[in-house]
Amino acid sequence: MPITDHKAMSTITINEDFFREPRFRPPQVLRICRVDRDNLLDWHRRELIPDARAGAKGRGHRRLYSVRDTIYINTVRILAEADAPLQQASLLASDMVDAVTESFCLQWKTGRDFSELPDCSVVLYRSDNAWHHQWFGIKGGESIPDGGLQRWMRDRHIESSVVLDINSIVFTLFDRILTEMGILPPAQQ
Questions:
Q1: Is the pLDDT confidence value at 157 over 80?
Q2: Domain ranges in the chain?
Q3: Which of 129, 40, 22, 115 is nearest to 76 (CA)?
Q4: SS3 of residue 114 by DSSP
Q5: Are residues 122 and 158 in contact, defined by beta-carbon separation less than 8 angstroms?
């Protein structure tokens, strides 16, 4: 659903501070990322996700998460639900933060018109008993090959894979972020 209220869009400035400013409490992150509390706490204990209390002094300071943190957590959740190893999910999530940020900025500039955006995906795959990932259309990756990703995977005899469509992730994640910030109205159920 494209944003049609350009007045609402102009109420925020999209810059590095927008992405880095700690602003979301844990209950908001649970809603934005569609992750449950136990998983989020477990990932913190395992040090798979950044510590959202960095810089807080003293006891009793609650975690605050930035937009970049939500991108990271959302990516770990998507990959964990697809049974990717958590260490691999964490590594790819680090790279995803910049890719999703870049794609969001493109979507914001185009008024979120998908027809003006390049196809961009990342494939996390298992081949020869090791995990790898390949970018397509973003982060210096090649464009999506002729014949599509299925053919690319078959040609490499890939045993198992997860394909993440960057633009789709950005579209859904930022709808939830902007809704949580009060910029977009809550979606109708």
A1: yes
A2: 6-180
A3: 40
A4: helix
A5: no
Report the share of the chain in percent with pLDDT over 70. Answer: 84
Q: Which two tokens stand for residue 99?
A: 């890719």
**Which of 60, 27, 167, 50 lies closest to 110 in space, CA to CA?**
167
Bridge partner list, 36: none
First-to-final CA distance of the chain: 14
Reported as a single tens digit per residue, the pLDDT across 69-92 is: 999 999 999 999 998 999 999 999
141 phi, psi to nearest 5 deg: -75, 160
DSSP state of 140: T
Bridge partners of residue 130, in order along the sequence = 127
- The Cα 15–Cα 21 span in angstroms is 10
Question: Residue 4: pLDDT above 80?
Answer: no
Q: How far is CA 180 from CA 24, 25, 129, 137, 173, in A?
A: 9, 11, 41, 29, 11
Q: Decide: 126 and 159 in contact? Cβ < 8 Å.
A: yes
- Pair 137, 145: CB distance under 8 Å: no
- Predicted TM-score (pTM) of the model is 0.84
The residue among 122, 102, 106 whose CA lies nearest residue 114 is 106
